[in-house]
Predict the structure.
Amino acid sequence: MGHGQSDFQDILITKRIADDYLRNQGLKKIWTPKYLWALGTGSVLTGLYTQWKLCTEIVEPLSVLTAIGIIFFIYLVFIMVLSELAVHFPYAGGPYAFARRGLGPFGGYCAGTAATLQFIFGASAIFILFRTFVLCLVPGTTGIVLGIVTFVLLMAMYVFGAGMPARLQFFLTNCALSGLILFMIGSYGFAHSTAFLSYSNYSFWHGLFLALPLVIWYFFGLEGLAVVTEETKNPQKTMSSGLILTILSIMVFCLGLWFFISKSVPETFFSGEQYHLLSVLQMIQPKDQVLITTFYAVSLCAFVSSLNGFINAFSRQVYSLARSGYYPYVLDRLHSRCRTPYVAILVPGFLSIFISYLAPLKFIVSISIMSALLVHILLFASYYQICKSEPVLFRFRGLFNYPTVFCFVFFLLFAVLIVVIINYNSEIWRIMLVWGLACGYYFFWARQHIREEAPEESRAVSGERKIQIDLH
Amino acid sequence: MKDENRHLESQIERDIQYLHGLGYAQELYRSISGFSNFAITFSVISVLSGLMMLYGYGLKLVGPFSIWTWGVVGFFQLILALALGEIASIYPLAGGVYKWTGRLSNPHVGWFCGCFSLVGWLACTAGIEFGLGIFLASYLGFNPDNIKVILSITVVIILLHSLINIFGIRIVAWFNELSVSLHIVGVVVLVVLLFAFGQRNPVASIFHTGGLSAKSLYFNFFQALLMSAWTLTAFDAAANVSEESINPSKVVPLGMIYAVLCSLLLGSLLLLSLNLALPDLSETINADMPAALYVIINALGPTIYRFVAVFVLLAQFTAGLSSQTVLIRILYAFSRDGGIPLSRTWKYVSPKYDTPVYSVFLASGCTLILCSFSAALPVITSLSTMGIYFSYVITLGAARLNWRKIESNRGYFHLGSFSKVVQTLSLIWAIFVTAVMVILPIGHNGAIFLLITVFITASYFLVMRRIIKAE
């Protein structure tokens, strides 16, 4: 079972058949609320450590703060929707599973593929940043080898140790967060002479326009929490507490960093210089070499924790799509002893490494951000659809005062997407090519190989049939 | 998962039955695991905060040689943990030494033991919370001599601890698990940084005694033992949450032993790294801040110092929280047996939070009163060690005299044929430490301890003798 086309082409998939399939192809349950918090927070830390420098114009702090507020709001609503969907669809498919129920097979495939692209290209982007960082300390071939070895070791840990990645992630995330606290302590007391809230002469809206695609990186990677539901013991409790804790932690650190950078060196906001937190600290405290070296070492933890989070995300997403038949069956193989999806870990992992060497950084960044936004749009659309067909399923429906909040969030999402498209317009044709290939693959191969006994499919189908039965 | 839950439920059922067999109903919420049990004890020992504050004491007496006091004390504290662990395995009851002594001997002796334990834990809690108030005030830039500010901060700390303790043992367990991470990460970071950037002295420097003569060395060494004895103590905290632990006969003794072992290891690394980074000895001793912090700020700069101080502050916060938790459980155990005035009030367990809420108020009130005697803080902190060690003396004495009870009622954890030797050694050690602390010329607070003993004895003869029930 699980290798090759569906064994159940011509019979009705019962709950027993679906449960048996999940027993054979299900993943071990390792994620508790604190590990979930570490996974979510750790995944976004690269953004918090590095994403201050990719623009060519100076942006005023208030624009950055507003951009943070907008993106935080989008992600907060996303997290609340995710916690609802995860409870009712507790499968490794994550975005694919959620969108499959609300938008049908093609919608589910698009959401799953968008998430896959986000995580694989996101891992490439993080790997590039990590490699560049390591090369500052260890130049030449040694640095390159160190970077690759780290990535491979992380993948190996995912293959051979079911619980080890969670514990490592917890350790790395705490170290990296300590680094952020160290930064705040280091920059405390270095107040800039200019009133920091209105530093630049550039307009607020212009600054907001520039800041939005970059501020996304402060929360980029949280989508990876959607794919771990199947690996939690009590999704209702674990996912809700883990997700809320994660988003609040990230926001606190985001605001803290914004405050300390604004107060001390506001001109670093997205300026053309190679400023990131380490460089900012070097500017503020150039003589304290112990501080600089310590911060450098701790910064490495941020990259490794983000890589760890993205490896988990793409492996689970690819595995679930393969398990359901959308991706080649070879990707759904589980290790006989460790019960880990080793092929789904290694193939996308090495693909990420190759992409980091072959593709331009701008393309990698743009496709991962746009894919993330697409995941959000599809999940919200699916949630909307499910609310229409099964109105009593979700707890927060009343809280959203749906559809007002939904419309507002959709508007914001599309607005951010348009801003991103304009900022990365040179890469649009490449992104459309990738999606064209993905859609072609679906229509010519994938949709004929869907396995209805897969848990995501059986859950979606049973929901659809129940509605049909109720209607009749 | 269903099998796991079933196993857990049957274990809890067995624990409740065992508690019934000991004569008590299950009133507190039994939820904390072996790791959480270890974490509570580890938090109270708090190597990171204890050694940071007391490193200078040992340094003044025997210089860098004070590191060896850690080894000596660590060995004997391990023996003590083994002895107490064996008893805890037989009698997994809230109240710890109070209940054990009552069972091994009689309730009257148990009451005496419990009083000293109560004094010790009350002083311990007050000492930690007020110490944290002083450190936090200094860290935030306030004048450390401004007693009003320090007391205000201490009040906030006590309130926070009380709120956490009211809302339930699961939240306390969460903080203690955080404390374990804080300690391990904090010590490892500090040790690595000191080794990497701060090393000034060779390893042989740990044998330097600051130029003392051989005669003075022995005398000062015994005094310096107190640095380690003050830090590596109070590990019977695990026993006081026995009624809230799952499978306490196993997890309580193991929690105590592992906590002592982990603290021993981390403390050794910390002391070694501090000694190797030590600048001029007299300059360090005469600095206007704790010696350990002076070493850190010298070796690693002001920013790293402030960063490390965050770990120390958080470690102290969790240590104070654990200490208050233990104090509350002792008060609860006492009042359950009618051992203190207004027992009916203090033993009330909230059905909503499953915690003895009025005991929380009593504990925080008494701690506040003690803290207001701030000028006597060094006396208060030494009282904590005297009270706790003297309670160990009574317990181990009762265990040694009634050894057959231990032999015939062995719990999950027992020492077999080594039991007698270990009990005897630990009794001698507890007597030694208590004597050193109360008898001149080393012990300076014997008079106050005598006063407390007289007060407890008078209370017993005037009030409690008629009230204490046989078990």
